[in-house]
Structures are given as structure tokens and as C-alpha cells.
Specification:
The protein has 193 residues and is mainly alpha-helical. The protein has one domain. It has a two-stranded antiparallel ribbon. Strand 1 (61-65) and strand 2 form a beta hairpin. The chain contains six helices and two strands. It has helices at 2-13, 24-50, 52-55, 82-117, 126-140, 153-175, and strands spanning 61-65, 74-77. The chain crosses the membrane at residues 27-46, 92-112, 124-145, 151-175. InterPro entries: DUF805.
Length: 193
């Protein structure tokens, strides 16, 4: 556990350092911790937005006649309206954009250093960012009011598919072993070879 906290501390100290190398043993604990934090944060944000106290939406039971033979009584459901759901999803969308920006800021430098460690330039981290940003920009049109431009849906789908392919390839590159020798980005940390 002491090693984990040392890796996290080292990641924060070098948060803006894009030079040098970062071995796998430094990259993965730091990056996966932030992936976990972002997943939990998005779940908490959605729960907050869906809670009755925040937007006044949620199902509640009231008087609705029950079918004959069920013992009588009545039940009514107060379900969210389309406007309520649009408000919820808009809040979730913008919360997700902010969370993604924070995540990118937290892992950008260590991702570049990890790519350097296997002899690659940090530019390999850019393609997923381009498709992520364009996806967010296209999705924003769904939350600007009015009827959503459904003609954009196939383009958003294709953009997201290319984003996932780029992200998958970046993860593949991040999993590659360290360059055993010194490369143009510096010397390796011997414990990671």
C-alpha cells in the first residue's frame, strides 16, 4: 500500500511534467485510480440529478383505480416529463464534459511519459482526444433546446466508433513494454524492465 501512495504522490508531483519516461508500474495505478474515481463520480452525479430533491422528478404513488378483483384501492405514478428528462440529461452531459476535462488534465502528462517510455511520441495520445471533443461538440446540439437534430445521429455514432478504436489503440500502446535501452526521451527505470 505504501508503494501505491508513493506512485500517486509521484503522479501528482509530475502532473505538468511532459518530459522523460514513466514505466508501466507508475502509469497504471495512477490512471486506473482516476478511471475509477470518474466512474463513481458520474454515477453520483446521475443519482443527484435523478433524485426527487434536485429536479422534483421521480416516481411517486398516488390514487389510481386498481383493476377489479385486485382488492380495490388505487395507485398513481408521477413520472418525469420529457422536459424533466431533458433537464436531467443536460445536467449529466455537461457534468460529464467537465469530468472528462478534469480526467484528461490529470492523466495527460503521465500518458505522454508512458508513451515516451516505449519509444513513442506523446502525439499518439491526441487522436482519441480529437474524436472525444468532436463527439461532445456534436452531442451538445442535442441539449440546446428544441427538437434534437436526428440527422446528426449517424455521424455521432461513427465518431464514437472511431473514438473507441483510437482509444483502444492508445491503450494497446500504453501496455507495451518499456524500451530496455535509453531512447530519445531518457533512460529507463531498471525496476520496470
Amino acid at each position: 500500500m505504501q508503494t501505491y501512495f508513493a506512485i500517486m504522490r509521484r503522479g501528482f508531483v509530475a502532473l505538468l511534467d511532459f518530459r522523460g519516461r514513466a514505466p508501466r508500474r507508475h502509469f497504471w495505478p495512477f490512471a486506473l485510480t482516476w478511471v475509477f474515481v470518474m466512474i463513481v463520480s458520474s454515477q453520483l452525479l446521475m443519482r443527484l440529478l435523478m433524485s426527487r430533491g434536485h429536479f422534483g422528478v421521480g416516481a411517486s404513488v398516488r390514487d389510481v383505480p386498481l383493476p377489479p378483483g385486485s382488492g380495490g384501492g388505487s395507485v398513481e405514478f408521477d413520472l418525469p416529463t420529457a422536459g424533466d428528462m431533458a433537464r436531467i440529461m443536460t445536467g449529466f452531459f455537461y457534468g460529464t464534459v467537465i469530468a472528462a476535462a478534469i480526467f484528461i488534465l490529470l492523466v495527460a502528462a503521465i500518458t505522454v511519459r508512458r508513451l515516451h517510455d516505449s519509444g513513442r511520441t506523446g502525439a499518439w495520445a491526441l487522436p482519441p482526444l480529437v474524436f472525444l471533443a468532436s463527439g461532445f461538440a456534436m452531442m451538445a446540439s442535442f441539449f440546446t433546446g428544441g427538437s434534437p437534430p436526428m440527422a446528426l445521429f449517424p455521424l455521432i455514432f461513427l465518431n464514437n466508433l472511431v473514438y473507441l478504436l483510437c482509444l483502444g489503440y492508445l491503450i494497446y500502446l500504453l501496455c507495451k513494454p518499456s524500451d530496455p535501452d535509453a531512447n530519445r526521451f531518457g533512460r529507463p527505470e531498471l525496476a520496470d524492465l
